[in-house]
Write a structure and sequence with these properties.
alpha/beta, UDP-N-acetylmuramoyl-L-alanine:D-glutamate ligase, Protein-Tyrosine Phosphatase, Chain A, 17 strands, globular
């Protein structure tokens, strides 16, 4: 389509213009950003890591909003609606508001609205091919640049060093947990992956490392750049009991805090990194203790150990790699006894399926494997075969395959007793697939009843 006019048409256009869905590197996207004159004029917090990025961004946004700041947030991927990727002052940007920015990126990409200076190293003459993620990241960065904001939070999509988000120089980098994922792009081990994520660090700026055992590559990058390194343990700590928790670090202290509204064993680790970042940015963005309390109490983030009220118990989680599935397993184990646990699972084919299934397998009594609407997704049959090939799988467990997450959930609800538990996990597309049309009425009946 030569002249897209709707969001759906623009997204289809973005999917067609580059031969690869992922093409690591900043030269092309930097050239287009330069042509656009793209620049953020407010403090920027950039968040990278294997797991915990979304929760960290959500808590930052909630606390800063409670402090009265006008906050812009860019995160990815989305669960249901594309517009979820960008929030301005707590509200998702509208599709209509995005259209002029798609047009702006396209003009710059084609070279028809040139603002660049000839001879600059980042110049790429003529038409520039962008991936879907690169194009849409530029769209959202343009939205943020033209909004009246006080602070911007950016979540890295993949890695850090070569991710399109890294076009923007951050005022504070946060690096959450680092584990094995996307190894075909980021490297075969934690040191390699840490080196890529450390690419968001900027010279002389604070970097918050909330991984308790960070790769040496992250610490070395911070040292070489002269960054202001904040590590959990040496520079900030948290303590807690069953009722409350507290945080301390570099002359600041919060005590008697209620637990974050986001559930899960790792959320105190994420919240601690958030408080460290806010302490590091205190002179630019002071926050009150009450804003911290209110923000942590009110924060919301669908799909992160989200427990849906009703019977049977329904848990939604976008755990899609071994590290996050291990955390999900720990959280599920802490929920107590359920007569039967039903699991709806869909994932990408490049994931370490055997490790993921082995970790959560002992808790699952019935599997519902599902197809996902993406070429690189593993088919339901492939997932079932991977489970059946496990030498130590839960012997009494049963399994079935389904054409979509929605149909898999329908089958699980139909089979479940009110006292049972259903977990929906894996890709964002798995959780998004059951949220897309609204959650089912939770009862031990068919959804069509």
């Amino acid at each position: 389509m030569d002249n897209p006019t709707t969001l759906e048409q623009w997204l289809a256009h973005c999917e067609r213009i580059h031969p690869r869905s992922i093409d690591m590197g900043l030269e092309r996207v930097r050239a287009v950003a330069h042509r656009m004159g793209l620049r953020l004029k407010v403090p920027v917090i950039t968040v990278a890591g294997t797991n915990g990025k979304g929760s960290t961004c959500a808590m930052l946004e909630a606390i800063l909003q409670q402090s009265g700041y006008r906050v812009g947030l860019y995160t990815s991927p989305h669960l249901v609606h594309f517009e979820e990727r960008c929030r301005l002052r707590g509200e998702a940007v509208s599709a209509a508001a995005l259209l002029p920015h798609f047009q702006k990126v396209e003009r710059a990409r084609l070279g028809s609205d040139l603002r660049y200076l000839p001879g600059r190293p980042q110049d790429v003459r003529g038409e520039v091919s962008l991936t879907y993620f690169e194009f849409t990241t530029l769209v959202f960065l343009s939205v943020l640049a033209h909004a009246e904001l006080d602070v911007v939070i950016l979540e890295v999509g993949l890695g850090g060093r070569l991710d399109a988000v890294n076009l923007i120089d951050t005022d504070c980098a946060i690096i959450t947990s680092i584990d094995l994922d996307h190894m075909e792009f980021l490297g075969p081990d934690r040191e390699s992956i840490g080196r890529e994520k450390a690419g968001i660090i900027r010279a002389g700026k604070p970097v918050i490392v909330s991984d308790p055992a960070p790769p040496d590559s992250v610490l070395e990058a911070a040292r070489l750049l002269g960054a202001d390194l904040w590590r959990i343990g040496p520079d900030f700590q948290f303590t807690g009991d069953k009722q409350q928790w507290g945080w301390s670090g570099r002359g600041k202290r919060y005590s008697g805090l209620a637990y974050p509204a986001l559930r899960g064993a790792n959320q105190l680790l994420n919240a601690s990194g958030v408080l460290a970042a806010l302490a590091a940015l205190w002179e630019q963005l002071p926050v009150t203790a009450q804003a911290v309390r209110n923000g942590l109490a009110l924060v919301e983030l669908p799909g992160r150990f989200q427990i849906v009220p009703g019977q049977p118990t329904l848990v939604l989680d976008v755990a899609h790699n071994p590290h996050s599935v291990a955390a999900l397993t720990e959280n599920l184990d802490a929920m107590g006894f359920y007569p039967c646990t039903h699991a709806v699972f869909g994932a990408m084919a490049d994931k370490d399926l055997a490790t993921m299934l082995a970790r959560i397998g002992p808790l699952v009594d019935r599997w519902y494997f599902c197809d996902l609407p993406l070429p690189r997704a593993a088919s339901a049959a492939h997932l079932q075969a991977a489970w059946q090939a496990m030498p130590e799988r839960n012997p009494p467990a049963q399994s079935s395959t389904h054409e979509s997450p929605r149909l898999a959930l329908q089958a699980a609800v139909a089979a479940a007793d009110p006292a049972d538990r259903i977990i929906v996990f894996g890709s964002f597309l798995t959780v998004g697939g059951v949220l897309k049309d609204g959650l089912p009425r939770l009862s031990a009946q068919h959804l069509s009843d």
